[in-house]
Design brief:
33% of the residues lie in helices and 26% in strands. It is globular and about 45 Å long. By secondary structure, it is α/β, with parallel strands linked by helices. A hairpin with a 2-residue loop joins strand 4 and strand 5. Helix 2 crosses helix 3. The protein has a 7-stranded mixed sheet with strand order 1-3-2-8-9-10-11, with helices on both faces. The protein starts with 6 loop residues before the first strand and ends with a helix.
Length: 214
């Protein structure tokens, strides 16, 4: 396979031979890298596999998965390619490592959250769940993509009440759309800007522990 992505992988220090592990694939925000999201879920590193995926396009000192025409307006062709290549990467990693295909999670922030929600809608129950922090779902994903049911996909979505990049109304609109398609949604607001607070992190960890049964 011609891998499109560099990645960082953390596996439990005492792997049990033959055991399959719940796995979190992390997707960073614009200008960041594959190690950026690890700290959020590091407390779970002995219980599951954590794979950070680096965007394949350089941006300043970091990377991105696709470029924008304007804020909130992805270049469609690049976005389509990212969705295709990320799904292929998930299957690659599942074959290469002891990943439990029934307990695969995406965790994304900002651009990574946008991709995580879009992948949930295109992959359906190939994912056990997603964590989407401060993101939205592009309109063309809702109208043009071949969408799968997410009624059995667990979703933790959160947004900053004072988000200066994606105003909080975007978070409410995203949650309303998701509620129309699944009852397995947890949506929380936090008194933050475009970031992740300590309370947000703790809620994510507790949600993952419960949902992945770890």
């Amino acid at each position: 396979m011609n891998l499109m992505y560099t990645y960082d992988i953390h596996m439990p220090s005492r792997l049990v031979e033959g055991k399959k592990y719940a796995t979190i694939f992390t997707l960073h925000g614009k200008g960041s890298n594959e190690r950026n999201m690890f700290g959020l879920v590091a407390p779970l590193a002995e219980e599951l596999i954590i794979i950070g995926i680096r965007g394949n396009l350089p941006l300043g000192a970091g990377y991105q998965y696709y470029e924008l025409k304007s804020l909130g307006n992805p270049i469609r062709e690049m976005f389509d390619q990212a969705i295709h290549h990320l799904e292929a990467f998930l299957h690659y990693a599942t074959d290469k490592y002891p990943v439990d295909p029934d307990r695969r999670y995406l965790l994304g922030f900002s651009q990574g959250a946008i991709l995580s929600m879009s992948l949930a809608l295109t992959m359906g129950t190939q994912l056990k769940g997603i964590v989407a922090l401060n993101g939205y779902i592009p309109g063309f994903v809702k109208t043009d993509y071949a969408l799968r049911s997410i009624k059995d996909v667990s979703i933790f979505a959160s947004h900053g009440e004072f988000d200066s990049v994606f105003p909080v109304q975007i978070g409410h609109e995203t949650a309303a759309y998701l509620r129309e398609h699944t009852e397995r949604l947890t949506f929380n607001l936090y008194p933050t800007d475009h970031g992740v607070s300590e309370d947000n992190q703790l809620d994510v960890l507790n949600w993952l522990k419960t949902d992945a049964n770890i």
